[in-house]
Write a structure and sequence with these properties.
Order of helices and strands: HHHHH
Shape: elongated
Keywords: Membrane, Transmembrane, Transmembrane helix
Strand content: under 5%
Number of helices: 5
Structural class: mainly alpha
Oligomer: single chain
InterPro entries: MAPEG-like_dom_sf
Largest sheet: none
Number of strands: 0
Length: 113
């Protein structure tokens, strides 16, 4: 039986896609020591005067490459509690998605019986 790796492609794509987000965060935190989880998309702009311009430009490129329409929580969020909840639900949903794809891939590898 030929291995079917297609089930692993979505988790791999998500990891590759979010690399830019985490790399941007790494750049900002390394230079400033701060990260604002209430409004994470504004961290690079707020850090502009605190980090060197080369790092800032690289972080802006990462941000531009990664930005997408996430959901209304970003629009309506004004507290650390909601930011934490958003992070929890996002992490949980990603974990469930990964688990399901991996289970399907394992089942397909064994053969559907």
């Amino acid at each position: 039986m030929i291995a079917n790796y297609s089930f692993y492609t979505l988790p791999a794509l998500v990891i590759v896609t979010y690399y830019l987000y985490y790399y941007k965060g790494y750049l900002v935190v390394k230079q400033t020591g701060k990260w604002n989880n209430i409004n994470p998309r504004d961290n690079v702009n707020k850090a502009k005067g605190q980090i060197n311009q080369e790092v800032w430009r690289k972080a802006k490129c990462c941000e531009a490459a990664h930005q997408n329409v996430y959901n209304s929580i970003y629009i309506n969020n004004e507290s650390a509690g909601v930011a934490g909840l958003r992070t929890f639900f996002w992490t949980t949903s990603m974990g469930i998605s990964f688990a399901l794809y991996i289970l399907v891939a394992k089942k397909a590898k064994k053969g559907l019986h």
